[in-house]
Amino acid sequence: MITLNRHGHVAEIVLDRPKAHNALSTEMAAKLAATCAEVADSAARAVVLSSSAERSFCVGADLKERATMTDDDLMRQRPVFRSAFGAVLNLPQPVVAAVHGFALGGGTEFALCCDLVVADPTAVFGLPEVGVGLVPAGGGTQLLQRRVGTARAADLIFTGRKIALDEAVALGLVDRTAPEGRDRETALELASSIAANSPVALRAAKRSLRHGASLDLAAALDVEDAAWRTAALSGDRREGITAFNEKRRPEWPGV
């Protein structure tokens, strides 16, 4: 259900339940959280979240599984799902989503949990949960408004409507576009360009972006200062300066 591929310093986490269009089951959610934990503790400098399904990124929760569940079962599933979305959101490395086809419900939320979203012309986004008596709860109500603004998020969430690539780009939900069928390739190229940089600086910069986003400016600048100090006292900073002066590529120690 989840496959982990390595491409040099890039880890690729693949949603790999193609016959179900990557519908998120309890088992798949648990495996995703475990895979993210493995990647978080690895030497990977950047991560790509992709899909093996031909026509889908992820179509959200497995409603066939949920049809058999009691209320108690649903409540027991909830922390497993929260753990899966949280694991993607809290990866310390920069994360790039590679989206094609349907990214609905949890599929859109997985994209929102990533730092950057690459999508091809087949991509369709949407948070249709209100149509089945639920609310987006893989971070959808919070992450979407942080990306596109509260009113635009309300439009998408209250109507449950689907949007194609052009509107997703206009709203700021998608950061880079790819030719049809090349979302994964484009995302891996982007992640590789990110991974060429200092792993210490990348993780510090991500912490600063994430932690500072909900703070007032003065507090956010303190977060930024702490990130700078972490990088400034690292072996990566010393190697970066040396490599620059010697006109060569850095060989990052990662500490």
Automatic annotation (TrEMBL):
<dbReference type="InterPro" id="IPR001753">
    <property type="entry name" value="Enoyl-CoA_hydra/iso"/>
</dbReference>
<dbReference type="InterPro" id="IPR029045">
    <property type="entry name" value="ClpP/crotonase-like_dom_sf"/>
</dbReference>
<comment type="similarity">
    <text>Belongs to the enoyl-CoA hydratase/isomerase family.</text>
</comment>
<keyword id="KW-0456">Lyase</keyword>
<protein>
    <submittedName>
        <fullName>Enoyl-CoA hydratase-related protein</fullName>
    </submittedName>
</protein>
<dbReference type="InterPro" id="IPR018376">
    <property type="entry name" value="Enoyl-CoA_hyd/isom_CS"/>
</dbReference>
<dbReference type="Pfam" id="PF00378">
    <property type="entry name" value="ECH_1"/>
</dbReference>
<dbReference type="InterPro" id="IPR014748">
    <property type="entry name" value="Enoyl-CoA_hydra_C"/>
</dbReference>
<keyword id="KW-0443">Lipid metabolism</keyword>
